[in-house]
């Protein structure tokens, strides 16, 4: 995380409600902080209907969730990480309010979380969750942000 990895970043605001707050320069900074290797990523902000449809169609869970990561594995390790990462703006805002966190801090956390998923991290079991959460906390601290898991 100390050195910058090559990044091709596309940002889409299908739901533009956060476009003036969660800016492209901030998104690039957050993504770059979480990159462990070169990457080609698309970040897409969507409304509840699209978020719910994607979660239902791909994860078989009929509700909008905060972030969905769709990695596209390459043929070998020399290829850049490729993924689409989708954020549901409404869920992101609602969670920030419920958790009494700033919108930007929560957005940064979800971006870091999604980028780590794109690079193969997950939280399917306790050991993997602990490893991923520790890395998130370290990355966010490097961005000057608090531990999102602290009470």
Binned, the helix content reads 40-55%
Overall number of domains = 1
Category from helices, strands and their pairing: alpha/beta
For the termini, the CA-CA separation is 26 Å
How many β-strand stretches? 4
- CATH superfamily, by name, is Metalloproteases ("zincins"), catalytic domain
CATH topology heading: Collagenase (Catalytic Domain)
Characterize the structure shown:
The chain has one domain: 3-Layer(aba) Sandwich (Collagenase (Catalytic Domain)). It is 44% helix and 19% strand. It contains five helices and four strands; from the N terminus they run E-H-E-H-E-E-H-H-H. Strands 1-2-4-3 form a four-stranded mixed sheet, sandwiched between helices. Strand 1, helix 1 and strand 2 form a beta-alpha-beta unit. Helix 1 crosses helix 4 and helix 3 crosses helix 4. The two termini are 26 Å apart.
């Amino acid at each position: 995380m100390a050195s910058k990895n090559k990044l091709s970043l596309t940002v889409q605001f299908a739901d533009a409600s956060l476009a003036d707050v969660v800016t492209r320069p901030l998104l690039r900074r957050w993504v770059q902080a979480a990159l462990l290797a070169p990457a080609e990523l698309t970040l897409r902000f969507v409304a509840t209907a699209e978020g719910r449809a994607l979660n239902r169609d791909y994860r078989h869970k009929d509700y909008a969730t905060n972030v969905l990561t769709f990695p596209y594995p390459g043929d070998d390790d020399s290829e850049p990480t490729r993924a689409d990462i989708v954020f549901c703006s409404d869920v992101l805002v609602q969670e920030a309010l419920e958790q009494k966190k700033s919108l930007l801090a929560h957005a940064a956390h979800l971006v870091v979380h999604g980028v780590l998923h794109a690079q193969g991290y997950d939280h399917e079991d306790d050991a993997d969750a602990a490893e991923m959460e520790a890395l998130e906390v370290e990355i966010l601290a490097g961005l000057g942000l608090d531990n999102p898991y602290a009470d």
